[in-house]
Amino acid sequence: MTTAEQKVLILKSNISTYADLLQVRHPLDHHPGITRWNIDLDDCDHVIRIVTPNLSVSDIQEIVNSNGYQCSELE
Q: Does 2 have pLDDT greater than 80?
């Protein structure tokens, strides 16, 4: 069996508190296209790191935006 190649998406966000993180946790945990994720609340850009075989930055933005937060690709 071949494992699909994984890519890492790095985005900055306005998810700045643990309460904010809890708002997006369920949709990120249960999305079939997300292998792993984390949010660095201590970083000034509140970086979201997503490991996925097939999602794009715009897919992640849609998930985050639909839960009341903003994110964009970190340059």
A: no
